[in-house]
Amino acid sequence: MTTFFNGIDRLKYDPDATGLAFRHYDPDERLMGKRMEDHLRFAVAYWHSFAWPGGDPFGGQTLDRPWFGDTMDHARMKADVAFEMFDILNVPFFCWHDADIRPEGDSFAESQRNFEEIVDIFARKMESSRTRLLWGTANMFSHRRFMAGAATNPDPDVFAWSAASVKLCMDATHRLGGQNYVLWGGREGYETLLNTDLRRERQQAGRFLQMVVDYKHKIGFEGAILVEPKPQEPSKHQYDYDVATVYGFLREFGLEKEVQLNIEQGHAILAGHSFEHELALAASLGILGSIDMNRNDYQSGWDTDQFPNNVPEVALAYYEVLRAGGFTTGGTNFDAKLRRQSLDPVDLIAAHAGAMDVCARGLKAAAAMLEDGSIERMRKERYAGWDRPDARALLERATLEDCHDRVVDSGIDPSPRSGRQEILENIVNRFV
């Protein structure tokens, strides 16, 4: 045991509490035939919670943690603190990058030894903890070797290094019973076309992902392979810009049945979309896997990774998740970090507790909207004309000539119909 969270007990559901507690998140509350915990499947992000030092684009470290350092002793302490926090929050899952959990060695072999020792520690801790692994991933963007990308790097040695890193992380994820494996292409993009071969780099990225899928089947990993769309930051253009871009990439390389998406709220906003748009599109394409739940500051132009606190936004996101049938292997990972001035241990607990409550409120509103059915009835009514046999024939077998004859022969003169947007928005507001 460490002393970092001294005086902070395990949080409980208590809607009347004045101190640290869950006021809306009741894991055992049933919604649409399922426990709330099983709907939300919360996960703590190891990197932001335990590895992030408090920096931003204009300033360095503000957080002072006793496990900050580049030794294995620091990494072991970090693991101790992490599992203590998992217990305080009673979360079902956590997520990691390899670089979050072990210090970088002087060689790949040393980094591997460090990594595997921490994975051993995780395995022992998980024997007495209820917290499981939602997903693992490899950090292939922070170190200077990845400054020109990982899979898309012009240097084949970096490609090989990256593939070796993914193998280690997939092995560890499989060993720890992880339910997904994520590829997060933080630098899979370019800064200038003057030194970039777009076709070559896309081919490299496609081959890399094919190798990942092949290895999944070779080792018998039954979880999902997830790609996380990310636009702009830090590269000028990312190859995995948004859901539509990634789906086109998957189709190009024959991977659309093998790979799903982990969609982040902050990345959706940077791509110029709403979170619910990206979720709905992924669901319609059959590739919605998991989500990173955070928010951006809409007055800033970069990914601020703040904990969610906007219930209406969260409700619309979970509405799309529930419409799609809910999570299977995926869940709600808090890819969110404290503000630079939030220095104390209690801030870390309060941030997660508040975010879990916000998500619970959003989920309950989303479930209530679905069960009410008004939105879905109005959606169905809007497209009811397409259910007629003659209308279905337009899509199934009609030609341009058929459409011309239909209009001329019947004297069709379509009249616009209201989209009823304000009425629909009023319905949403009744629940949030």
From TrEMBL:
Catalytic residues as annotated in Swiss-Prot or TrEMBL: 97, 100
Molecular function GO terms recorded: magnesium ion binding; xylose isomerase activity
Top-level taxon: Bacteria
Protein residues bound to Mg(2+) 2: 264, 267, 303, 305
Cofactor note: Binds 2 magnesium ions per subunit.
UniProt GO cellular component terms: cytoplasm
Signal peptide from the UniProt entry: none
EC number: 5.3.1.5
Substrates-to-products reaction catalysed: alpha-D-xylose = alpha-D-xylulofuranose
InterPro entries (UniProt xref): Xyl_isomerase-like_sf, Xylose_isom_bac, Xylose_isomerase
Binding site for Mg(2+) 1: 228, 264, 292, 335
Keyword vocabulary terms for this entry: Carbohydrate metabolism, Cytoplasm, Isomerase, Magnesium, Metal-binding, Xylose metabolism
Subcellular location(s) per record: Cytoplasm
Record-level GO BP terms: D-xylose metabolic process
Cofactor(s), by name: Mg(2+)
EC class: isomerase
Chief localization: cytoplasm
Complexes and interactors: Homotetramer.
Similarity-based family: Belongs to the xylose isomerase family.
Descriptive protein name: Xylose isomerase
Species, as recorded: Paracoccus homiensis
